[in-house]
Amino acid sequence: MKKIFILFSFLISAFAAQSQSVLFQDDFESVSLNWTLNGGNGDNQWIINNVYAGFPPLIPDTQDQPSGINNYPNSFYMHIVNQTACTNQGICNASFNSSSTSLQYTTMTNDISTIGYTGVSISMYFLVAGGLTTYGAVEYSTNGGTGWTQIGNNLNSTPGWTLWTQTDATWDNISGLRFRFKWSNGSGIDPAFSVDQINITGVGGGGGQSITTGTIQPLTYCAGDAIDVPFTITGTFNSGNVFTAQLSDATGSFNSPDAIGTLSGVNSGTINGLTSISTPSGSLYRVRVVSLNPPVNGSDNGSDIRIDQAPSVTLPAFNPNTFCEDDPAVTLSGGTPAGGTYSGNGVSGTSFDPVVAGVGTHTITYTYTDGISGCSGTAQQPLYVVICGAVNPLDAGNYFAAYPNPSDGEVTFEYSLNENFSDATIQITNLFGQVVQTLMIENQNGNVSLDKNLSSGIYFCSLKLNGNFVAMRRLVVY
């Protein structure tokens, strides 16, 4: 009895070591980007829908699906349809026009990498009646679609849903594996070639390693949010191994996953992931963990994840955007969508107070939160607070002004100075502190005009006497 128990335990361990990892799966229940339909010719074409009703007795209904198929008995499936009858009469089930000779393919859009995997197999449910010259077939490519080889015999005379499985060592440990389905017809009978519940699996690592992705909480995120991905392992992973958390596409497929975080090591743990701000909105995302050494694809988290894009938020440039240090508070507006909030130095509610903000450049942020998803978007614009009065007060009787202000670029400076000076200039600088023009003053009283027009913007006009700045005026050019 003891020997039997030990043998039984060994067999259980061996079975676990040979557990299959899912490399690809598609049940067509979400919008599928996994396939390129109709690479061929003829009126009978590939389509994905959940139509089973025909037009009996001329066009029989497609048979209901068995319980082995997700969302049976009438789930979405990929099949051949008489395109003319579908378009003109609305008969869009698995049927074909035998008088229209057709040769059509539906091809896997992306390669599957089986590097590190053995025992790679494909399984699916299919049905097709057809005839001697009307059949379906499954083909594979090991070079990314350059060359194709048919798997087994033509498929026909199978009008009911049937599970089909094939394994081929040629598919092991390669980087460019693809499959495609072929339809060729002459005369024959419905139903036309139909497929569903496609799974491609392999045994990874060769040493009994496996990765189980844990529970993800919560199941709702905004694009750009952090997401913690716990995982547990069995078996021994090698030195230098890196675990990577992968996010599926919006349909739950891992054909082209996004890496959202990594963790170096050989033990179970939690990966601190970060979703991309460009992740499209969707409610069917899944997460899994994969390893580098040996390469093992872990299970997915087992529950659909919702990710929402942040709302698009805009904040036009403020006009005006420059204020004197003693100007009164102004009302902020322009942020969209309406209903958001403003924040920044000197901001209270929708009011900006230059006195509170102080001299300098201040970034004003407008934030809007979507009431349904709870996701927030932001937009920013600067406001400037400057010193507009005299740096050193002018003596009584002195006068310095610029007009018109605001101006279209043609400006005259008027001055009256009751003190002696050996050197007097008016210096014009922009917001970046660059001197754009300098005007010489030769008399104590008079006016002087700019040598050239100024472009639109905010400028500071400084009066300089005997090497000292004594007054400054703000100039707005529109």
Could you list some keywords that capture this structure?
Jelly Rolls; 44% strand; five-stranded antiparallel sheet; 3 helices; six-stranded antiparallel sheet; 478 residues
Tally the helices: what do you get?
A: 3
Broad CATH class of the largest domain: Mainly Beta
* Cα radius of gyration in angstroms: 36 Å
CATH-scheme architecture of the largest domain: Sandwich
What proportion of the residues form beta strands (DSSP E)?
35-45%
Shape label: elongated
Low-confidence stretches: 1-18
- The total beta strand count reads 35
Tally of individual domains = 4
- Given helix and strand content, the structural type is mainly beta
The fold-level CATH name of the largest domain is Jelly Rolls
- Largest sheet report: 6 strands, antiparallel
Helix content: under 10%
**Average pLDDT:** 88
Give the CA-CA distance, first to last residue.
Answer: 97 Å
What do you see in this structure?
The protein is mainly beta and 478 residues long. A hairpin with a 2-residue loop joins strand 34 and strand 35. The longest helix has 16 residues. It is elongated, with a radius of gyration of 36 Å.
Summarize the structure.
The chain has three helices and 35 strands. It is mainly β and 478 residues long.
SSE arrangement:
Blueprint: H1 2-17, E1 21-26, E2 35-37, E3 44-49, E4 77-82, H2 83-89, E5 102-108, E6 117-128, E7 135-141, E8 149-150, E9 158-167, E10 178-185, E11 194-204, E12 210-213, E13 220-222, E14 226-234, E15 242-247, E16 258-264, E17 269-274, E18 282-285, E19 287-291, E20 296-300, E21 305-308, E22 322-324, E23 330-331, E24 341-343, E25 347-348, E26 351-352, H3 354-357, E27 360-369, E28 376-386, E29 399-403, E30 412-416, E31 424-430, E32 435-440, E33 445-449, E34 457-465, E35 468-477
Parallel strand pairs: 13-21, 22-28
Antiparallel strand pairs: 1-11, 2-5, 3-4, 4-11, 5-10, 6-9, 6-11, 7-8, 7-10, 12-14, 14-17, 15-16, 15-19, 18-21, 19-20, 23-26, 24-27, 25-26, 27-28, 29-30, 30-33, 31-32, 31-34, 34-35
